[in-house]
Structure formats: structure tokens, C-alpha cells
Amino acid sequence: MDDFIDNERILVYDFIMNENGWKSRWSFDQLRAMLLEQFDAFWERESGIQRSALATVEKAVSLPHAVIISGLRRVGKSTLLLQIAHKIGKNNFYYLNFEDDRFINFRAEDMDDLYQLFVEFFGVRKIFIFDEIQNVKGWEHFVRRFMDLGHKFYISGSNASLLSKDLGTLLTGRYVPIELFPFSFQEYLQFNNQAIPDLMRMKTSDQAQLKHALGEYLIRGGIPDALKYPEIPLTRTLYDDILYRDIAARLRIDSIESLKQLAFFLISNPGAIISYNKLKERFKLGSVNTISSYIALMENSWLFLVINRYAFSVKRQLVLPKKIYSIDTGMAETVGFHFSPNTGKLLENLVFLTLRRKTSEIYYYATAGDYEVDFFLPEEGLLIQVAQNLEKDGTREREFRALAATAKELRVEKAIILTDHNENDVVVEQLPVQILSVSEWLLSV
After folding, report:
1. 229/310 Cα distance (integer angstroms)
2. Which residues make up the CATH 3.40.50.300 domain(s) of the chain?
3. 158 DSSP 8-state letter
4. pTM attached to this predicted model
5. H or E stretch covering 417
6. Torsion over CA of 367, 368, 370 and 376, rounded to 10 degrees?
7. pLDDT at residue 245, as a whole number
8. Alpha carbon of 350 to those of 35, 80, 167, 279, 347: distances in Å?
9. What is the pLDDT of residue 342?
């Protein structure tokens, strides 16, 4: 009943707000104040450590393309925009954050009014920086129109559909997509003022310190504010906000409890192989389509990332079980449930995130003999296996068998095992295998 009442309130509120144009709700002085407040607050923020994604953005500065940054809430998109702004110069751009509640009913057709106000208050500028633009339905239409007039856009949003095929059609390939993830291991070390070691001159003490830092990184994750304010449960709050505000409330999902239980199961099992059919039965949801749509919504909000099992037929890939990973190991550790330390699965999740920063062409593989390899990168012809330690319970032999069997079926000629320390390369049934320290590998890719 409460959910029904809340939804009714949303509908009435939307109706009232949409009946009145955005600009008509404010006086001239109020409009000027809100734009100036936003600009000053943005410019005066801490710019944080330099994100590695900034180099990609800088390459697009001279292009006429829009730069579109997508990623999880609180992952640092606004900070990256600020770092871009500092490169551009304070007097060369307009800024607006559409997450501000004063812009809650802003519509695409209001853009001309907004531009007029920008010119009146700031003068003529050719660059727009827009934060959380997914709150404006149809935003891509005015972006395209202003791009045709010679304007440049830097845009952020917390919705993966910002980088969808539909957007590519509307902007006809005139945008540079950037996915921003939580801190990488290197960024985590920089954030904590820890020196990045020279991997070619590692001493035993360096290796021990690096391994210790990796253990902390696994547990704490890479969400900037959660690291900055460890005394506050920001990771759990973020998870709840995304689940209830971004997914359930905005999309008016009735079965909130089912969504909650499904999300909790997934975040408690990073790196798990999942079958939509089995999940449907487990959570007593009506159809596989419901499970599929819920997981798609969570992917779209950057809570989880899903990969397919590799098969030579794309149709077969779509029906085979998937593997699911958390966007942040700290979130999985904080929010998820586990009886004992989950280090092995968190390591696998971390390796996946590192690979995913470089490419979306990542698969797992299961052989005809039911051996599993964690990752297959077809573009590189590379197999990657993650093992917390190769000395436990026949782990070494098991990993070797899986790699050798997969290499024969896929005709792959190189493989890596990522574990707790470096070892000499080996050849397993004619397959060259590198055995690398995961902490050092994270800093080398």
C-alpha cells in the first residue's frame, strides 16, 4: 500500500511540475543565483588525484565530438569533469549539475532558455560541462543541435545507457565514450600517498608492502568517498540509494523485495556463474524475462557487470549461463554475506575490473570436460586464470588442466595464471603459461 501511495505522489508531482515550465518557476535573480552557486561550488571543489581516464579525455579536446563519461554514482565523474575544467580554464565553459533538485523538471525544450541565461550571466562560451545529464529526458537532441552550431560538450551520467546504440544513432558517431570505474590499484596507491614501486627493481620488502596494500584494497575497494571517509558506511548507503532510488523508485518497480533479495544474492557471490532459470525458481519470480530485466537494470546502474560464456555461436552465448561481478570489491565485501574470507573471489572480481577498463570483449570458458577458465580475451588470444595460492589442495594441477584443455578447444597459444607471487614460466601440454604476481600485474596492465 505504501509503495502504491508513493508512486501516486510521484505521478501527481510529475504532472504538476511538467505543467509549469522550468524557467517560469523562478525569478531572474533566483536563476542567476542558482547558476552562479553551481558554478562556484564546482570550481572550488577538491580536484583529487589525477584519474588515468583524464589522458583519454585530453586526446578528445581538439575533436568536435562530445565526451560522454558514464559510471557508478560517487565513482568520481564530477571530479574528472573538474580536472577537465581546469585544463579548459575557468572563463571558457558553462557548467550545470542536473542532480540539483531545482532542475528536477528541466526538459530538453528548456535548453534554449538555459543557454540564454548562460550568455547573459557568463558571456559567450563554446563549451558546456553537464553533470548527471540522464535526469533530462531527450537531452541528446539538444546536444546534437548545439554541436551542429559549433559547441563542445563534456557530459557525465550514472546510467550505462548513455553509451547505448541509440545514442550512437542520435549523435551519428560524434561522441567519445568513456567508462569511469572505481580507483584502479595504482590510483588507490596514489590516493593513499603510497609510492608506486619500480617493478623491475622490486626488493622483498617492496613485494611484502605491495601484497599488504593489495589485501587492503580488496576489502576497502576503490570508491573515492568511501576511502576518504572510512568512518561512515558510504558504500552501503550508495548501494541502497542505487537500488531503491535509481532503480525501484524511478522505474516504479512493484516487487521491491524480490529486487532486493536478488541484488543481495548477486553481491554476495562475486564471480558466480548464474542461470536466469535457476534464479527465477530461487526467487519465485514469474519469468526468466523478469530476472533478465532486473539484472539489466542493475547493470545499467553500474552495480554489476555480466559476461558471457564463450561459444562460437553468438546465439548459444546468449542462452548459456553468465558470470556476474560487482562494480567494486569493497561494496561486495561490505554489503554481501559470506561465512568466511572471500579473498579468492574478490581477487577474481578485481582482475575482471582491471581487464574491463581496457576492453569489453571478455568471456569465461567451460570445456567439454567441465573445466573452467576464468577469462578468455579473444582479441588477444589469451587465457587468464586467477588463483589465490597455487600450493593448496592440488590447485596447481587443476589450473594447469583447465588451461590446457581450453587451449586445445579454442586453439589458443598463451595463458597467464595470476597468483600471490611470480614463478618461472612453464609449458603445459605445449601451452606456454606465465605465472605472475597479481599485485604486480595490476600495476603493469
Report:
1. 40
2. 18-180
3. S
4. 0.91
5. strand 414-419
6. 10
7. 86
8. 40, 22, 29, 24, 5
9. 84
